[in-house]
């Protein structure tokens, strides 16, 4: 796909995830606001369009930095990958981070009171993510797999009890946006996950883990919002 200033951010990253690193470099949100065109983003950020397009092209042509072509995957394979990679990551890291944040609040909360708000924001996000993932694993992903099977075998697809897939996805994406806004606040409160110089290793490790958690979350939501959901909706309509 040739990149132009009319191409949306989500489309660019969906076609080649290696470009995500370039958007992250400029703090351009490719997962929650992937609907914006390159032209819109460059104008808002004051970035020269041709220079950004050149950087994106170099990222795509870098053979040393290979990436999966997620867009070519079937919707059922992608749903499985998201569940087994990103859902498991959230489930494994959440209790560890909650424990570490509670410890930081006890040890350093008096000196760094922002830790209490960071802890609250993460806890709220963790609870919402847990419910969001459960809904996808029990309802949305199984239906996506039924759509894929029906399409592959030429079978009749019964209407789901929740109506159209598109309506269910809108609710999921609203939940994504809520979590995304919380992590923007966490990033701001932590000065982009920079631990104060005079703090202990636990402080530094916790902030590093939070940064990694947000990075994984961005890829997780990008794969759903920009690839899996549009592909599945198109298949359902077909």
TrEMBL record:
- Write down the Gene3D superfamilies for this protein, in alphabetical order: nmb1532 protein domain like, SP0561-like
The answer to whether keyword Protease applies is no
Reply yes or no: does the keyword Magnesium apply: no
Which keywords fit this entry according to its UniProt record?
Answer: Cytoplasm, Iron, Metal-binding
Cellular localisation: Cytoplasm
Q: Which InterPro entries match?
A: Hemerythrin-like (IPR012312), RIC_family (IPR019903), ScdA-like_N_sf (IPR038062)
Q: Which domain of life is it from?
A: Bacteria
List each copy of the Hemerythrin-like domain by range: 84-231
Report the source organism.
Flavobacterium soyae
> Where is the major localization of this protein?
cytoplasm
Q: Which Pfam families match?
A: Hemerythrin, ScdA_N
Q: What is this protein called?
A: Iron-sulfur cluster repair di-iron protein
């Amino acid at each position: 796909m040739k990149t132009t200033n009319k191409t949306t951010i989500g489309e660019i990253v969906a076609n080649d995830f290696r470009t995500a690193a370039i958007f992250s470099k400029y703090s351009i949100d490719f997962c929650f606001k992937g609907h914006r065109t390159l032209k819109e983003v460059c104008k808002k950020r004051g970035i020269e369009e041709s220079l950004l397009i050149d950087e994106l092209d170099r990222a795509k042509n870098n053979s040393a930095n290979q990436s999966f072509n997620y867009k070519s995957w079937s919707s059922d394979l992608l749903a499985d990958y998201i569940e087994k990679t990103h859902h498991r990551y959230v489930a494994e890291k959440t209790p560890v981070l909650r424990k570490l944040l509670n410890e930081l609040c006890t040890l350093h909360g008096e000196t760094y009171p922002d830790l209490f708000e960071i802890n609250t924001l993460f806890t709220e996000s963790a609870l919402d993510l847990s419910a969001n993932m459960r809904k996808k694993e029990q309802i949305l992903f199984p239906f996506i797999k039924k759509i894929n099977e029906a399409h592959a075998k030429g079978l009749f697809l019964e209407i789901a009890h929740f109506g159209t897939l598109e309506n269910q996805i809108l609710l999921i994406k609203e939940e994504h946006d809520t979590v995304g806004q919380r992590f923007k606040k966490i990033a701001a409160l932590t000065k982009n996950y920079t631990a104060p110089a005079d703090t202990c290793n636990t402080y530094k490790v916790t902030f590093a883990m939070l940064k990694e958690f947000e990075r994984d979350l961005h890829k997780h939501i990008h794969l759903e919002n920009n690839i899996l959901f549009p592909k599945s909706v198109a298949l359902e309509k077909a």
